[in-house]
Amino acid sequence: MKSSSLNVAEKFDTSRANEYGRQSRIALAGYDACQDLAACMLAASLGNTCSAKVLVVGAGGTAQEIIAMATLAPSWRFTAVDPSEPMLEAATQQLEASNLLEKTSMHHGYVEDLAADESYDAATLIGVLHHLDGDDAKRQVLRSIRAHLKPGAPLIVAGNQYAYASQPLLLAAWGQRWRQHGASPDEVKVKLGKILQGADPPHSEVAVQKLLHDAGFGDATRFFSSLFWSAWLTCKTA
CATH code at 212? Predict the structure, then answer.
């Protein structure tokens, strides 16, 4: 998994980190709504928990999932993990601006690097799986997260699904989404070309469920969808 994650870290360099907030909100219609609903789903799953430790994997960029969770549950604390230093720095700036840095432990690296005895009440993995090449890398990151979760703890997984070329209508609508935000026809072609070459999403919701089951999680509940993107809540099995 680390070799695959290293490629992801290289992909999310300084230039991409600087534009991530704007670009992600165009590429994912409903970006902030997804983050808000993820926080709501975790809070609903955890019940009336006054305090919780949440592991946020792939936290770099906007840190919006942490901001959304902290708004809903001010007593929660977070561990943010990301292999991309520029992306983690961008998240640090966002958390500092939101006065949330003291609630968050920032970790440049991988889930496997965390202390073995570190355990969490919940976790999020948002916008990560489709950047990992192959099912083995996807299962590995899920298993690594599971190893740090308490029994029955909830996990939010969100990202793209389907082989992009297998859904031409969704792909065309994605192009129109960029055009809606000012991209020229040539710019749309470039963006779609990068999309087709730059990720390896699970090919169906069934494939997502299988990855989760293989890694030791239960059936997942989908609570958000936007073109290729979906978000699910699952829980660690015994």
Answer: 3.40.50.150
